[in-house]
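Record ABC-type amino acid transport system, permease and periplasmic component, 492 aa.
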Amino acid sequence: MKKHVILVLALLLTMVFGMSTLTTSTAHAATDSSLTKLQKKGTLVMGTSPDYPPYEFQATVHGKTKIVGMDVAVGEKIAKDLGVKLVVKSMSFDSLLVALQTGKVDMVISGMNPTAARKKSVDFTHTYYQGGYSIVINKNDRGIYKNKDSFVGKTIGAQTGSTMYNESKKQTSGTTVKGMTSVSDLILALQSHKIQGVAMEKPSAQAYVANNKELAAIPSDFNLNASDTSAAVAFKKGSSALVHAANKSVDQIKTQNLVNKTYLPAAGKYLKTNTVNTSMWHYWKAFLTGVEYTLIITVCSVFFGFILGVLLALARMGQGGVFRTGLRWLATAYVEFIRGTPMMVQVMFVYFGLGLIVNLPALTSGIIAISLNSGAYVAEYIRGGINSVDAGQTEAARSLGMSSGATMRYVILPQALKNIWPSLGNEFITLIKDSSIVSIIGVSELIFQSNIVRSDTYRGVAPIAVIMVLYFILTFTASRILNYFERRMQHD
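=>
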């Protein structure tokens, strides 16, 4: 009898606890303003990495480049049900969650697995797709590799930050696991025999194999939880109301089996369209866009970097007085800090770090970061150029009654500029190439566009060859222009 009483009490306590939890969750969703703010804004910004067909990739639709795939269809469904417009923002996969946490995007849909580690940082909806892993290999190696255990002494590649990368490191023994940001880079490494296999989701593996006769897919045989092979939509931590609303759309997608019935077949049609014409000329608009953004970043960064460099150089050379001494120390610290940290880190800090204070677009963030970096180097060029001007020039100008400011402006700096022009020219050439770093935050410069073309066409080497030629044309042309002005200065 006592056992029955205890059992009844246990059931009652469980029901009460469950109801209180549900009430708390519902109350939190009701007080959370994430949904209200989003609907008031009128747009739903979706972050994704469009190099992972059929989940997300780029295709030419009616002559225009567009991000498509089954994940985009999921995003469109959620946006439509919420009554807002979907805006798709592309960036590297390992930057997506940072972008979500810093408010650069409202949600992430990129074939992302709702793992326990990720749930600590973001909130996930219910899963909208249940997949699995495969390992893509070169077709000629089908007799050598059977599953993950066949790669002892070999190298498996996976996308950095993905579940495949983490599980490959955990569940393989004697195997080197190599991470890369882009899946197209991994496929290129595979075909050039830098790695022997690429771990990826089954739908993506099937897409690559179907469109590249030199590749084959084998079972991975990873021991996985359901969360490791499923895909869900990620929202910022604490967005309970938004997650609750999105779950309604996700549940409809699962109930009606829209992914398999509608979304994947539609993605397959775009994939076939991409592979009808894989010539590089067919993608000239994508490369032209890359050139345009590369030039915008370079020209703006040179302009602002030069102004900042002049100010820093003058501050570093200031003598006397507490104020000038303080400026000198600040300028010195800035130059040393910028020169001592990688530009990629600086770009990510400006985009994501400052994004917590002000929401800057990716292009603006890239220009600011590269300008700040360039200014530190230009400051040293200018300081060296000023020091190279004979001290007698300053004495002569001052003897004529010129102020220190006028002497610097009209006598010293013109001569210093002539001396440092070759160094400034090298800085300009370097910035053309260094602009490629901003591709990590989704700016559509040449490197970013080449990665998209590679993932769309399944051709690894041709897009790289094209951008090599384009970079050479840009740098060679800039070099000839700079040399022309250098000769004019020497003549004067």
